[in-house]
Specification:
With 328 residues, the protein is of the alpha/beta class. 43% of the residues lie in helices and 10% in strands. The protein has three domains: 47 residues, no CATH class; 46 residues; 149 residues, Ribonuclease H-like superfamily/Ribonuclease H (Nucleotidyltransferase, domain 5), CATH 3.30.420. It has twelve helices and five strands. It has a five-stranded mixed β-sheet with strand order 3-2-1-4-5, sandwiched between helices. Strand 2 and strand 3 form a beta hairpin. The longest helix has 17 residues.
Amino acid sequence: MPHANAPLTELGRLRLARCVVDDGWPLRQAAQRFQVSVGTASRWAGRYRAEGAAGMTDRSSRPRTSPGRTPTRTERRIIKVRLARRWGPARIGFLLGLNPSTVHRVLTRYGLARLVHLDRATGQPVRRYERDAAGDLVHVDIKKLGNIPDGGGHKVHGRAAGNHNKQRTASPVRRGGQPRIGYSYLHNAVDDHSRLAYVEILPDETKETATAFWARAQTYFHANGITVKRVLTDNGSCYRSRLWRDALTAAGIAHKRTRPYRPQTNGKVERFNRTLLDEWAYAHPYQSENERREALPQWLHTYNHHRSHTALKGLPPASRVPNLTGQY
């Protein structure tokens, strides 16, 4: 494809060449007519004589040989350090005695220019995927969250009060006459294609609670025009129960579990958990657990309908679910 300031397109080159070769125009006259140099006119005329109209296309400007290119052995060393230590170009360059720009060029050539594209645990390139349609796969997970005592936690009263509340949360019995704070369990379901999310705050993570949550989540997705075909979970005991299996089987939904110790497989809901904590659970100094829970429905509506999602080119999940309530 010619650059923006090129005086000739492929059709223009062909016309110039035909004027010279077929019609017998002098090179200088043809160059003046098409506003190019005589050398340019000569080049396109020569290609036309040798190759015909096919010779008018652009050719690669890459040299036949690159004697100044980084040796293959050095490139392999750069990649080995990158995968083993997850270092950037500056640190790799210092270790191997290379210019950081050289290291960056090699990493770019092999698709390793950004550390976020590598798995933190293994150092291998992350394989990203997205289902073609909403409902093809729904990610389900549970996030354990400590409750906020009345009057606020450490964001209100400081870290010392937070440590004291942490002891009250974890203790199986009352401490100092104060009631135990306890935990909440966020049951989350995220559609793989649209990232549409459904969340409930429940008191435990038993098989009965998880199965009942899924029944309500499936109803929510179905009400918004999404037919769930497959569910992906981790290997929690509630998801390995017969109750969970029978509930999915009765609905005609396939169940898939992640490999043990590989939460990256369920990465979309894991990333949603992080967003949920950053933008809702820990976003404000709540005065009580009830105040935080009351803020969840509005935040979830904003997430589904209004919040831009980088994986969706800045659009909200509702943009991929035409039947979503309020999305017309």
